[in-house]
Design brief:
Elements lengths: L3 H9 L5 H12 L1 H4 L4 H8 L3 H10 L5 H13 L15 H22 L2 H12 L3 E5 L3 H13 L6 E4 L2 H9 L5 E6 L6 H12 L3 E6 L4 H5 L2 E4 L13 H21 L1 H13 L10
Parallel strand pairs: 1-2, 1-3, 3-4, 4-5
Helix pairs in contact: 2-4, 2-5, 4-5, 7-13, 8-13, 9-13, 10-11
Length: 284
């Protein structure tokens, strides 16, 4: 079994009752312990009633607590033990730091396993053939857009990044066929970004979307690359989807570099040499 059980818990987190959320968070933090617990033990640790545990299990499509434990054990046996980040105020530095790393690793593996390779190949080809590439994003996704621009301008591609709706609209209005927009969003529901994407499509540009499936943005782009990360909304929750976006940008950049061939490799070496005068020499 894959990480489907954890993914389902993450997806349903905000729809669970508050008491059921307590169960979900305890399971996500302590999956190895839960498979050895009785229902009364889990209820006690999560500070809920036994009927709440049963209701939680059935909400996930399980026949009951024993069926839930069986599915959980199968998932752990398959090596899919990376849990969603969830933290108590009493957690130590070691506990919450390990949880953050495990959660991020789990997110990356989940995104990798679900990636549509055909869509990824089309996106790489579109970027490699583009006359101009523009990256759009807001907030944390804006930071990813600027990181992407930093990577792609070294690939001999005319590229820019915008995290302002006015600049995105003006950029979209000047696009034409053969240009590419990469729209980045963790939710896929930012109205201004969707509006800019529509303008880019009207200008006959190709739009690649790094966004959740089923989102308004996914419905508007030419080539969607789905990143479905169901993150908890607790105040301490890190945005592991942002890391997934950064890694996917790396994949696209490497794909474009490989497509463009040996001449680009020489250019990249020249760029690296240009930085040598700005650095202290390595100590012997």
């Amino acid at each position: 079994m894959s990480r489907a059980l954890f993914d389902e818990m993450r997806r349903r987190m905000e729809h669970f009752r508050r008491s059921e959320q307590k169960v979900a968070r305890f399971v996500l933090r302590n999956p190895e312990e839960v498979i050895h617990m009785r229902i009364v033990d889990l209820a006690t640790e999560a500070k809920v009633s036994e009927p709440t545990v049963v209701r939680f299990c059935r909400a996930l499509g399980c026949g009951g607590f024993q069926d839930f434990k069986l599915r959980l054990a199968q998932m752990l046996a398959s090596g899919s033990q990376f849990a969603q980040f969830s933290m108590n105020d009493s957690d130590s530095v070691a506990e919450f730091s390990h949880s953050i790393f495990d959660s991020t690793v789990g997110t990356l593996l989940s995104v990798r396993d679900r990636m549509d390779i055909e869509s990824l190949s089309k996106a790489i080809n579109a970027l490699a053939m583009a006359n101009r590439v523009e990256f759009y994003g807001f907030g944390a996704s804006g930071a990813v857009a600027f990181d992407a621009q930093h990577k792609f301008f070294r690939l001999q591609i005319s590229t820019s990044a915008y995290a302002d709706p006015h600049m995105q609209n003006m950029s979209a209005a000047t696009l034409k066929e053969g240009d590419v927009v990469v729209a980045i969003s963790q939710t896929g529901r930012t109205r201004a970004l969707v509006d800019s994407v529509r303008m880019a499509r009207d200008a006959e540009a190709t739009v690649i979307g790094l966004c959740p499936s089923g989102s308004p943005l996914a419905a508007e782009v030419t080539l969607p690359l789905y990143i479905d990360v169901h993150e908890d909304t607790e105040i301490y929750t890190p945005m592991s989807s942002r890391v997934a976006h950064l890694v996917l940008i790396d994949v696209l950049a490497v794909g474009v570099a490989k497509t463009r061939g040996p001449k680009l490799a020489e250019q990249l070496k020249a760029v690296k040499r240009s930085l040598n005068p700005l650095r202290f020499p390595e100590s012997e």
